[in-house]
Amino acid sequence: QVQLVESGGDLVQAGGSLRLSCAASRSIFSLNRMGWYRQATGKQRELVARISTGGAIYYADSVKGRFTCSRDNAKNTVYLQMNSLKPEDTAVYYCAATVGVIDYWGQGTQVTVSS
Asked: What is the pLDDT of residues 96-113, one digit of tens each?
């Protein structure tokens, strides 16, 4: 098992930046991959960015060039740096980790972008 704790969500104006953090309860090298998802009100949860153990990173087209996913192995933490935020980025952001075939989720952190 792994516990995930997100932080960093806030209310920000369009064009602003936020950095989300996801702290894992075990070494992130023991996880197949970690990722960030988001769910806006009335919409399905969608993948935003994902980083594999080997370091390969995937970004959704909607965030490419604006969001950066990174990790600090010593702190067992994954980050999502979000720049040039848009109102459509408003959502609850979730951290997820895959161990084997099981996905674990954090509690989510709210990001609200005002226009």
From this structure: 999 888 899 999 999 999
**In sequence order, which residues have a C-beta less than 8 Å from that of residue 55 and are 6 or more positions away?**
none
For residues 97 and 28, give the distance between their C-alpha atoms in angstroms, rounded to a whole number: 9
- Give the contacts of 79 (CB within 8 A, at least 6 positions apart): 19, 20, 21, 22, 68, 69, 70, 71, 72
Contact between 106 and 97 (Cβ < 8 Å): no
39: closest CA among 86, 102, 109, 99? 109
Q: What does the DSSP 8-state code read for residue 15?
A: T
Tens-digit pLDDT profile for residues 54-105: 889 999 999 999 999 999 989 999 999 999 999 999 999 999 999 888 899 9
DSSP string, 53-87: TT--EEE-TTTTTTEEEEEEGGGTEEEEEE-S--G
Closest CA to 80 of 43, 109, 114, 115: 109
